[in-house]
């Protein structure tokens, strides 16, 4: 069983997190018009033959670039040194939609999991990185629940350095726009699209000017989405589906039924007011793949918030609980047993982690008498496939009360929970699980 779990985890780890390259365009599509509101004259530059003087004027027209910290724009040239221009101050003949980049993003970045969703591009900023410019490692701030990533267009200007380094989950990739554009045989732009929670940085520009336009990427409203065309499954999708089916066909996996637990590997805009079920349509990367494969296998799944009890509560030290929503404890006072209070006030379940054959892994200190709820599904067996401590923590504070009053903290993690039916045995010793095939015991 562990080998099958490892195979499934390996599939998820191979998921594409970015796409990039060059895209051929006509010289006319490399024209940019720009100017400030208080300027009497606007300026025009064609990046297919831009001079050093023209690029310097463009750079001088820009304002110092800021970056977001705690919902505020901050100017700190020790962290980011570059110029920026708002969309009100420039216009370009280049259209990412017209040249077909939306289809490229759908096929190369979203691949099979979100192929039927529309994509909306929102032009965000123009940036100029001159000599000695850079942007240290950071993550983009999502500007809406349905924002899933960013697209950066790099115009064909001579520059040395300024590569984009991407990092996620301990892996690193580098997109060298200067080298890619130099190797192209005709007029082109460089492009790179990536998920919004992928950490990225712009390395030091040693010479020349690196000019980019950044777009925010959104999943389009269903009413405006493209018509679904049922694309052929990719090799990744086929491998992933086979790995999950193979795991579920193992008679040692949740023989009495229960849930497979997948901690989400991407970050999403979540707070105490968020209806996490609405995030299902905004899942990205490997998170979206799991949901897509479950749909294909007719496996019920939902998003839940997973909490581990605080370690300082000795009587609850091994208790893990799941809820259908983010628990809001801000107005609670004198909370002595936070897990018990959460279970009594919210629709929650106590998690019993199990291994092969449904054997419990450890023992929960929580008992029926600890809860006032009469729910028949208070306890559930869970096989943890992907660490349920997801990459994103949701912190909740409350007024704790023990020997003395203090501020308590508990951290939630969003997980995708897949419901698995119990195995049914027949007289010829064939075991079967609904929608998951059969194997010989």
Automatic annotation (TrEMBL):
Residues 125-217 form the Prolyl 4-hydroxylase alpha subunit Fe(2+) 2OG dioxygenase domain. Pfam families: 2OG-FeII_Oxy_3 (PF13640). InterPro entries: Pro_4_hyd_alph_FE2OG_OXY. PANTHER family: FE2OG DIOXYGENASE DOMAIN-CONTAINING PROTEIN, PROLYL 4-HYDROXYLASE ALPHA SUBUNIT FE(2+) 2OG DIOXYGENASE DOMAIN-CONTAINING PROTEIN. This is Prolyl 4-hydroxylase alpha subunit Fe(2+) 2OG dioxygenase domain-containing protein. It comes from Serpula lacrymans var. lacrymans (strain S7.3) (Dry rot fungus).
């Amino acid at each position: 069983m562990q080998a099958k779990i490892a195979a499934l985890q390996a599939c998820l780890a191979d998921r594409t997190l970015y796409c990039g390259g060059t895209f051929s365009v006509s010289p006319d599509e490399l024209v940019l018009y720009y100017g400030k509101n208080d300027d009497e004259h606007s300026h025009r530059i064609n990046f297919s033959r831009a001079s050093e003087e023209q690029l310097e004027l463009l750079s001088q027209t820009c304002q110092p670039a800021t970056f977001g910290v705690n919902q505020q724009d901050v100017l700190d040239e020790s962290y980011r040194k570059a110029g920026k221009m708002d969309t009100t101050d420039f216009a370009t003949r280049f259209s990412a939609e017209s040249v077909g980049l939306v289809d490229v993003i759908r096929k190369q970045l979203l691949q099979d999991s979100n192929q039927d969703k529309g994509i909306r591009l929102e032009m965000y900023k123009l940036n100029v990185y001159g000599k000695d410019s850079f942007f240290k490692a950071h993550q983009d701030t999502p500007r809406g629940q349905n924002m899933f990533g960013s697209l950066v267009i790099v115009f064909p200007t001579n520059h040395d350095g300024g590569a984009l380094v991407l990092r996620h989950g301990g892996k690193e990739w580098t997109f060298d726009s200067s080298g890619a554009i130099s190797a192209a045989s005709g007029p082109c732009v460089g492009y790179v699209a990536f998920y919004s929670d992928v950490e990225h940085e712009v390395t030091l520009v040693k010479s020349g000017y690196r000019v980019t336009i950044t777009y925010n990427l959104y999943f389009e409203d269903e009413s405006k989405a493209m018509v679904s065309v049922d694309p052929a499954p990719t090799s990744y999708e086929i491998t992933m589906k086979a790995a999950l089916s193979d795991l579920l066909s193992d008679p040692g996996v949740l023989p009495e039924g229960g849930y497979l637990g997948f901690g989400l590997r991407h970050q999403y805009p979540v707070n105490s007011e968020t209806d996490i079920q609405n995030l299902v349509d905004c899942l990205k990367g490997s998170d979206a793949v799991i949901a897509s494969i479950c749909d294909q296998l007719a496996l019920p799944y939902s998003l839940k918030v997973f909490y581990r009890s605080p370690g300082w509560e000795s009587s609850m030290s091994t208790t893990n609980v799941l809820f259908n929503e983010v628990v809001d404890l801000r107005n609670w006072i004198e909370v002595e047993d936070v897990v018990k209070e959460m279970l009594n006030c919210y629709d929650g379940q106590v998690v019993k982690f199990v291994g092969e054959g449904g054997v419990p892994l450890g023992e929960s200190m929580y008992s029926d008498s600890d809860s006032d709820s009469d729910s028949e599904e208070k306890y559930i067996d869970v096989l943890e496939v992907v660490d349920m401590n997801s990459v994103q923590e949701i912190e909740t504070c409350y007024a704790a009360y023990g020997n003395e009053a203090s501020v308590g903290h508990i951290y939630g993690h969003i997980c995708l929970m897949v419901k698995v039916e119990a195995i049914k045995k027949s007289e010829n010793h064939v075991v079967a699980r609904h929608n998951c095939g059969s194997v010989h015991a």
